[in-house]
Queue: 3 jobs
Job 1
Amino acid sequence: MLSQKARYALRAMIELARADTQVTAGELAERADAPRKFLEAILLSLSREGLVISRRGKFGGYVLARDADAISFAEIIRLVDGPLALTPCVSRTAFRRCEDCRDLATCALREALLRARDATAAVLEGYSLADAANGAGAELIEG
C-alpha cells in the first residue's frame, strides 16, 4: 500500500514538473495539499537522493534535478516507501527470504507475487512525472 508520505512526494514532484520556475516549500505544500513541515522533510530526503535541487534563502525554492520525463513514479516510491514488492522474497532491490518460508523453490505464493511485482514495476517505471504533469492516463479514468 502506498503511504501518505509517498502520495505527498508524488504530488509535490508533479507540481515541480508543472512549474516553469522554482517553487517554495509553502507553495508546494499548498499545491500538493500537504502539511508544510512534513513536506519539507520529504523534500530534504528527495534532495539528498538527487531528485530535487534546493535553493536556500529569501529567493529560494525547489526545482527538479532532472527532466520530468527521466523521473519515474517507481523511483520516487522506492525512495520514500522502499521496494515495490509485496514480500521481500520477490524484491529486486531488497531481496531476503521470508521468515516463515521453508523453501523458495516450492513456495506456492512466490510465482503470483513475482508476477504482481513485475506488473507493478512495469507500470510505475513506465510512468514519468512528465506523463502525470501532462495528464497522461486521464483517458483511463474517464473511460
Job 2
Amino acid sequence: MSVWTIALLALLPPLVLAVALTWRGRPGQRFAAFQLATTIAVTILTLLTFATDQASVTDLALTLVLLSLPGTLLLSVFLERWV
C-alpha cells in the first residue's frame, strides 16, 4: 500500500461524516457540510490520480470543481425557498 492510498483511505471517514451531515442537519449545517464534502471529494480524486498513476482521474476532479459552484448556488436557492 502506498502513501497515497493510505491518505485516500484516511479521508473516507470525514467524507462519510460530511455526507451524513448534508443529509441530516439544520440548513446552515447542510450548506457547510455540502461544501466540505465537495472539497474532500476533490482531494480524494486528486489522491486517486497519484495512487493509480492514471491522469484521467484528474479530469473528474476538475469537473467536480467546476460543477461545485453551480451546485452550491442551487442548494442555497433550495434552502432559501423551501426550507
Job 3
Amino acid sequence: MDDSELFAAAQRLPTTRRPLLGLTILVVEDSRFACEALRLLCLRSGARIRRADCLKSARRHLQVYRPSVLIADVGLPDGSGLDLIRELAEASPRPGVILATSGDPALEEAALEAGAAGFLEKPITSLAAFQQKILANLPADRQLSGPRAMDDETVEPDFLAYRDDMAHAADVLSMSQEEKTLAYLAQFLGGVARSAGDGPLAAAADRLDSARLKGEPLTQDAATLAGLVQERLERRAAI
C-alpha cells in the first residue's frame, strides 16, 4: 500500500489497523537510517510524516504549521533537540504530543524535564510500541475508541539509508575535526551503529567519546572511526 492510497482521504477517522490516521508527525532526526524506520512505522500506522534533519530546518517547518506529533532526536548537528522540546512545550499552539528520541537511555530524564511527554529509545522498530507511545499521549478527543489489536510487527529500514549516514559522517569529517565536531560524530555514529547492529562502529564511536570526555588525544580514535566509515562506504552492503 503506497502513500497516495493511505492519505487520499486525509479526514478519515482512525481505525484499529491505522490508529494514527489523520495525524501529521514531524520527525527531527539527522540519521537517514533512523528516519527510514520512523517513516515505515508512520506508513503502517496511517500517519503522515514530515522530516527535518536539524534545528534550523525544524523551525522552518514550525513557522508554517503545527504538527500533531513532534519526535525530536536529542543530538542534532546544530544543537540539542532538548532546546526545541523546551520551546514547543511552552508554545501556543503547541504540538499535541512531544516525544524525544535517542540511542542513549540515560537522556530520558533530561528529555522529560525539558517537556517531552515520552521517550523513544533507538532502535525504534516495534509497531505496537511506537503506536502506543503516541496514542497514550494524544488529547482525549483524538483517542481511538474501543479495543485495538496490538500488532507485534517490526520494521527493517533499507540499508541504503545506513550508507547515506556514512556518507554524511564522511562529509563532516572532511570539513572539520575540531572537538565539537568529533563530539557530534561520536554521538551520531554511535546511535546509528547501535540501531543497525554494527558493533565495531559503535565501539569505535564510544572509544572516541570516552577519550574526549577524559581529555585524551583524539587523533588516533578519530582516524580509526574515519577508516571504519570509509570501509562501509566502499561496500555494496552497508554491514
